[in-house]
Amino acid sequence: MSDQTFEPKIVGFLCNWCSYRAADLAGSSRIKYPPNVRIIRVMCSGRVDPSFIMKAFALGADGVLIAGCHPGECHYLEQNYKAMRRFSMLKHTLRAMGLEEERFQLLWASAAEGTRFAEHVSKMTEEVRNLGPLNWKKNWIEKDLSPDEFDKIAKEHAEAMEVPA
Ligand code: FES
């Protein structure tokens, strides 16, 4: 049975041009969704290197979301198709490592789709909550890392992409 007091930590890599704005719209429209997603803004979903995902899980995330522009609408031509291919490959690898697939999700959401974004986050949060904590967190504790590490990832990304943190 799931522990309803468990609050999953989900890291969301959101494309600056669409999903990040969708999240912003959800917030400004006061659409309710769980506050469990720690957002890291990237310039494009194609910028999300598989190592970022592994690092997020290794640092204690219970779930990771990548969100980008709909196929055909990427501001960098076809980079979200690259994101899609990487997502499929990494999902396969993570499954082989015993990670439940609900923990790693991909969402397309345009800047106008605040509701779609909020609904997806709500659904994912419940799915991950039902799975319980990911035991990779042990790594995080054993290595004496802290949640501040998420801030470092965000900072590294912001610098790399010249987006104000
Ligand atoms: Fe949004 Fe590429 S610019 S996914």
Task: Tell me the CATH architecture.
Answer: 3-Layer(aba) Sandwich
Order of helices and strands: EHEHEHEHHH
List the domain count as a whole number. Answer: 1
- Approximate helicity band: 40-55%
Beta-strand residue percentage? 5-15%
Low-confidence stretches: none
- Tell me, what's the shape? globular
Distance between the amino and carboxyl termini? 39 Å
CATH class: Alpha Beta
Work out the helix count.
6
> What small molecules does this complex bind?
FE2/S2 (inorganic) cluster
Radius of gyration: 15 Å
Average pLDDT over all residues: 87
Topology readout:
Elements: E1 10-15, H1 19-28, E2 37-42, H2 50-58, E3 63-68, H3 79-96, E4 104-108, H4 114-131, H5 137-142, H6 148-161
Parallel strand pairs: 1-2, 1-3, 3-4
Helix pairs in contact: 1-4
The structure holds FE2/S2 (inorganic) cluster.
FE2/S2 (inorganic) cluster binds at residues 15, 17-18, 44-46, 68-69, 74-76, 79-80.
